[in-house]
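Colleagues,

For the teaching module next term, I've prepared a clean inverse folding example: a structure given as tokens, and then the sequence designed for it. I'd like students to try predicting residues themselves before seeing the answer, so please don't circulate the second half yet.
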């Protein structure tokens, strides 16, 4: 009975993380499954979807394709979208969410400044290593 009451860890994917499959051909979802040893739910913030849409609109080349692929994956995987404050930019919204429940939040990002901010909370971070695999730190 207690197992049913435990909250799943929320893995928040940053915009740059959703570009990895297109850029490097890495299946981030199977990699997350490989490294996580607890129940989890993969999520994105509404601001992340806005950023992907902006990249798609302004970039017609490879970056635009990668953003479109990331956006399609979010929809295909039916990832939960978390609403954030209208005035927050994406990184601030991610750190705000992580601060509310640091023990049950993991952030997947390659952003150096965001990683520094998250380490102060502290919250676990998933990063890409050697452009080949994901690591949980």
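(Answer key — instructors only)
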């Amino acid at each position: 009975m207690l197992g049913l009451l435990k909250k799943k860890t929320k893995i928040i994917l940053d915009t740059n993380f959703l570009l990895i499959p297109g850029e490097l051909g890495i299946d981030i979802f199977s990699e997350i499954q490989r490294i996580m040893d607890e129940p989890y739910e993969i999520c994105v913030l509404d601001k992340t979807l806005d950023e992907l849409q902006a990249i798609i609109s302004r970039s017609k080349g490879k970056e635009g394709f990668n953003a479109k692929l990331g956006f399609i994956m979010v929809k295909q995987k039916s990832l939960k979208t978390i609403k954030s404050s209208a005035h927050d930019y994406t990184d601030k919204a991610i750190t705000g969410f992580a601060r509310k429940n640091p023990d049950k939040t993991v952030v997947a990002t390659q952003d150096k400044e965001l990683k520094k901010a998250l380490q102060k909370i502290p919250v676990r971070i998933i990063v890409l290593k050697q452009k080949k695999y994901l690591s949980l730190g």
